[in-house]
């Protein structure tokens, strides 16, 4: 059983930056995809960014050009650099990891962007 622990969530002003990190309790090398979703009250969890084992990335249209996802298999870490933050980026951000058989989720980290 792999555990994912997120960190880096905070309160920031619009236009600012944050870096989220997700550390896995075990090796992430075998995970097909890792990434971040986010959720606000009353809404469905939505994909923010994902990165495959071959470092191919995918982003939600709303964050393209502002967010960058990276993956370091040696450190069992996936990170999300968030720049030019907007109030609509306010949400709980969840790290996830997809293997051939299972999807793992972290507990979430709160990002609040004040306008």
Walk me through what this model shows.
- The chain has 115 residues and is an all-beta fold.
- It has no helices and 11 strands.
- The protein has strands spanning 4-7, 11-13, 18-24, 33-39, 46-52, 57-59, 67-72, 77-82, 91-98, 103-105, 109-114.
- The mean pLDDT is 96.
Short description:
The protein is an all-beta fold and 115 residues long. Helices cover 0% and strands 52% of the residues.
Question: What's the arrangement of secondary structure elements?
Answer:
Blueprint: E1 4-7, E2 11-13, E3 18-24, E4 33-39, E5 46-52, E6 57-59, E7 67-72, E8 77-82, E9 91-98, E10 103-105, E11 109-114
Parallel strand pairs: 2-11
Antiparallel strand pairs: 1-3, 3-8, 4-5, 4-9, 5-6, 7-8, 9-10, 9-11
Name a few traits of the molecule.
115 residues; mainly beta; 7-stranded mixed beta sheet; 4-stranded antiparallel beta sheet; 0% helix; 52% strand
Which runs of at least 5 residues are low in confidence (pLDDT < 50)? none
Derived structural class = mainly beta
Taking the alpha carbons of the first and last residues, their distance comes to: 40 Å
Shape: globular
Largest sheet: 7 strands, mixed
Using only C-alpha atoms, the radius of gyration works out to 13 Å
Annotation field: number of helices: 0
According to DSSP, the number of beta strands is 11
Helix content: under 10%
Summarize the helix and strand pattern as letters.
Answer: EEEEEEEEEEE
The proportion of residues in beta strands is over 45%
Arithmetic mean of pLDDT: 96
């Amino acid at each position: 059983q792999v555990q994912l622990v997120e960190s880096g969530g905070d309160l920031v002003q619009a236009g600012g930056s944050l870096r989220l990190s997700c550390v896995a309790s075990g090796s992430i090398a075998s995970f097909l995809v890792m990434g971040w979703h986010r959720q606000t009250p009353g809404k469905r969890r939505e994909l923010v960014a994902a990165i495959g084992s071959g470092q191919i990335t995918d982003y939600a249209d709303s964050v393209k050009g502002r967010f960058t996802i990276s993956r370091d298999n040696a450190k069992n870490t996936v990170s999300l650099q968030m720049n030019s933050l907007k109030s609509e980026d306010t949400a709980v951000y969840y790290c996830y990891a997809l293997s051939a058989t299972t999807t793992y989720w972290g507990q979430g980290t709160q990002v609040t962007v004040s306008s």
